[in-house]
Write a structure and sequence with these properties.
By secondary structure, this protein is mainly beta. It has two domains: 79 residues, no CATH class; 46 residues, no CATH class. 11% of the residues lie in helices and 33% in strands. The chain has a three-stranded antiparallel sheet with strand order 2-1-3, with helices on one face. Strand 6 and strand 7 form a beta hairpin.
Length: 126
């Protein structure tokens, strides 16, 4: 199965659909993309914008999700920003907190107001 993301005019993802491999003639990406776009446009209108996305992130770095966007310069899908203070790491194509997640074996939750990690559960150490 192949997955195609519909984009609005600002390149934001508004839906992701599955297209059967038979419909694509069993072609692999990138050859499958044009065939898939033509198929999607035949269903949703020829003015619609589509890009193929990879469920296992084998191309375009991230699987497209509703609310995310497609960056045509980088040819990647960028997920929605999870928190206001987070920054996008272009080397890894993912959002990161301004302070690293503590690596002490406990569980933390991001506090956007304080821009820090709040301890939510202490794991007993043996």
């Amino acid at each position: 199965m192949a997955h195609f993301a519909q984009l609005d005019t600002n390149h934001e993802v508004i839906q992701v659909i599955v297209v059967n491999n038979e419909t694509l003639g069993h072609l692999e990406f990138p050859e499958s993309e044009l065939v898939g776009i033509e198929f999607c446009q035949s269903l949703y209108g020829f003015e619609t914008i589509w890009k193929q996305t990879s469920y296992n992130s084998s191309f375009r770095f991230n699987y497209a999700g509703v609310g995310g966007r497609y960056d045509s310069e980088l040819d990647v899908f960028i997920p929605p920003k999870p928190y206001q203070g987070w920054v996008f790491n272009e080397a890894e194509m993912k959002w990161e907190s301004p302070t690293p997640y503590p690596i002490d074996g406990h569980f933390y939750l991001w506090n956007d107001e304080l821009e820090s990690w709040d301890l939510i559960a202490e794991i007993p150490q043996p």
